[in-house]
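Narrative of accomplishments. A recurring question from our advisory board has been how the design workflow behaves on a single, concrete structure rather than in aggregate. To address it, we present the structure tokens for one chain from the evaluation set, followed by the sequence designed for it. No filtering or post-editing was applied between the two.
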């Protein structure tokens, strides 16, 4: 949602009118940024990561657009939890299979994102995701897990993905097939603490997180790049979306203590409860990073992948 105190302009995305900040990055560049100008922003450490990722123009459900979508300064946090595979399966489409740590135990994540500088302007986001086995891959699940962790390339299916801005909702829902809606989301992440809150339809708390930030380690740009592939259905066909994160400062706590995840009333909390998580095994915080989000591409997913 665009702040009422910020002047806005109306743009068209696949026939839908969306308000964006006047003079913001989307208003000025329409996904075709001047990287030299972006580099002058004091909050952006470097744009070298993006110079190696040329954009291409593609057709999409939101009209012709350039991909990938660049995020020049972001901060994120992720709770990874164990959950019964039986509960996870009830939330997955039949064509996808959960990624298992051991037999009967899968992985679920609760994530919060703050995008301070990006092609579609500032917004915040939260997500509930399930680890799944890579599509078109026949190796045992534990092999998939080791391969994904070793290469820092995991695969997921997202249950809920609320955002704080209209353009993020329209692009994410119509263009990518993600379950996005607009609500108030507060995300603050620094080297001392993490705090986040997602509001429900009545203004109350859907889900909230509070914790001390794990000790951070700095990385040169391009030295630590992780990837995530997400699966969505668009127009009845499966698609995969690649997200590449350039990690600049991050830290991890395993079997963390003092992480306060509060479940309230709303879709995000309902999704978490439905998965029946029973133990938090990892808490990741990235106080500074960058991201390239590619447009989804069609992919063949074998029928009955759970077998």
């Amino acid at each position: 949602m665009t702040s009422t105190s910020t002047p806005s302009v109306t743009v068209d995305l696949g026939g839908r009118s969306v308000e964006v900040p006047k003079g913001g990055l989307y208003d000025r560049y329409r996904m075709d940024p001047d990287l030299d100008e972006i580099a002058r922003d004091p909050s952006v450490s470097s744009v070298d990561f993006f110079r190696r990722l040329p954009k291409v123009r593609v057709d999409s459900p939101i009209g012709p657009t350039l991909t990938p979508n660049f995020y020049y300064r972001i901060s994120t946090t992720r709770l990874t939890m164990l959950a019964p595979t039986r509960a996870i399966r009830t939330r997955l489409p039949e064509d996808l299979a959960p990624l298992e740590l051991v037999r009967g135990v899968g992985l679920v994540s609760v994530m919060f994102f703050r995008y301070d500088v990006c092609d579609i302007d500032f917004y915040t986001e939260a997500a509930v995701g399930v680890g799944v086995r890579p599509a078109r891959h026949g190796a045992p699940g534990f092999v998939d897990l080791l391969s994904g962790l070793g290469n820092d390339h995991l695969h997921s299916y997202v249950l809920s993905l609320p955002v704080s801005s209209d353009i993020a909702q329209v692009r994410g829902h119509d263009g990518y097939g993600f379950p996005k809606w607009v609500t108030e989301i507060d995300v603050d992440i620094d080297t001392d603490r993490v705090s986040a809150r997602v509001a429900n339809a009545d203004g109350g708390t859907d889900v909230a997180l509070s914790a001390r930030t794990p000790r951070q380690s700095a990385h040169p740009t391009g030295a630590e790049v992780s990837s995530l592939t997400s699966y969505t259905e668009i127009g009845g066909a499966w698609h995969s979306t690649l997200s590449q994160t350039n990690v600049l400062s991050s830290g991890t706590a395993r079997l963390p203590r003092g992480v306060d995840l509060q479940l309230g009333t709303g879709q995000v909390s309902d999704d978490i409860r439905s998965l029946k998580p029973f133990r938090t095994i990892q808490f990741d915080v990235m106080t500074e990073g960058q991201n390239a989000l590619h447009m989804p591409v069609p992919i063949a997913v074998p029928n009955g992948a759970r077998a």
